[in-house]
Structures are given as structure tokens and as C-alpha cells.
């Protein structure tokens, strides 16, 4: 990347950034933060005030890119309309790919107790991501240019833009919730839905980087 891109993105230097971090201890600390969180902003504050950028970046563990180059930017704007919680940019042998990440509430159910329908937090997150996807479909060139990423714009195919919703806890999902989640992912190309516990697991895998 050129200098202006390096200044804008948080870069995870290969096999360097992860040195001297006890990721098992960090995973335990994050789990404790989740147990005490009342709302999504509590987790955002935990990450940002302590600059624990490896927590959202641990999402790279769910994808097959990021091991050549890995970057993260918090609160990336999508024009004047939207703002994503985190943008992940990763590279593998085929090129760059992007993940737009939405964090929603922590201690919430995935589905309503008496109906097979998503709870408000899940619906809100899904609506946000659908808005992002529509915006990206209409403004792809503008997006990459505004992020100083025009040099990779033409190399990223439609399947190289991903969307990730982080919501709820694993213990608050039953079999029907998991089936609903799988169906939502099938219906929306590029969508990945995980609980915050997946981040707890992923953090433990970061000893050798992404």
C-alpha cells in the first residue's frame, strides 16, 4: 500500500503484530467483558479504549484471506448514509477481499421465544447489512476511490465483498435458531452471522497470526 493507505488503516504486520500477546488470557478477558456487557457499546468501548483491534480482526480466522496482508479500519463511512463498525481488508494468493462488519447487542436471543422469527437486534443488524449491500452494489467505484483503494478496485470481484453480523451469545441459540441463521446466510450471498463467542474462540487462534 501507498503511504496514505498505511496512515488510514491499522496494519497487522505478518508474524510481528501477534508477538508478546497472551491470546488465551485475552480471550478470557474478552469473555469476562461479554458477561458484564449490558449493550453493544460496552463491547465497542472495551475494544476501542484498550485498542484491542485484534478482537474484530480475529474475524479473519473465518475467511481464507488475510494471511498475506491484513488491515482494519474502525467506523468506515459508506458515503454520507452509512457507517460500518469495522472494515477488514485482507489479501491471499488471489488478491484482496473486504469484510464489512456490524456489531449488535451481546446478551440477546437470536429468535423470539414464542415464534420462529428473529429478535429485534438480529433484524436490526440484518437490515443494516442489506442497506450496506444495496449501497455497495450502486456505489462500488466511489467506495474504493473514497477509501484510497482504487488500486485494488478492479481486482475485487462481487464475491470478494463480504458482510458479517456479530450478535448474541452461543448459549442463547437453540437448534431452530441455528437453522434460521443458516437459512439467512444461504439467502444472502456473502453474509456471515456469528455470536460473540466465535470471537472468543478466534482470539485463541491468533498466536501465529491470521
Short account of what is shown:
The protein contains 8 helices and 6 strands. With 210 residues, it is α/β, with parallel strands linked by helices.
Describe how the helices and strands are arranged.
Blueprint: H1 3-8, E1 10-11, H2 23-36, H3 40-49, H4 54-57, E2 69-78, E3 82-92, E4 95-103, H5 120-146, H6 150-153, E5 161-166, H7 175-187, E6 191-194, H8 196-204
Helix pairs in contact: 2-8
Helix proportion: 40-55%
Terminal Cα span: 19 Å
Compute the number of helices: 8
Largest sheet: 6 strands, mixed
Structural class: alpha/beta
Count of beta strands = 6
Average pLDDT:
90
N-to-C SSE series? HEHHHEEEHHEHEH
Order of strands across the widest beta sheet?
Answer: 1-2-3-4-5-6
Which geometry do the CA atoms define? globular
How large is the share of residues in beta strands? 15-25%
**What are the segments in which pLDDT stays under 50 over at least 5 consecutive residues?**
1-6
Radius of gyration: 17 Å
Give the tags.
210 residues, alpha/beta, six-stranded mixed β-sheet, globular, disordered N terminus
What does this protein structure show overall?
The two termini are 19 Å apart. Mean pLDDT is 90; it is low at 1-6. The protein contains eight helices and six strands; from the N terminus they run αβαααβββααβαβα. It is of the alpha/beta class and 210 residues long. It has helices at 3-8, 23-36, 40-49, 54-57, 120-146, 150-153, 175-187, 196-204; strands spanning 10-11, 69-78, 82-92, 95-103, 161-166, 191-194. The protein has a six-stranded mixed beta sheet with strand order 1-2-3-4-5-6.
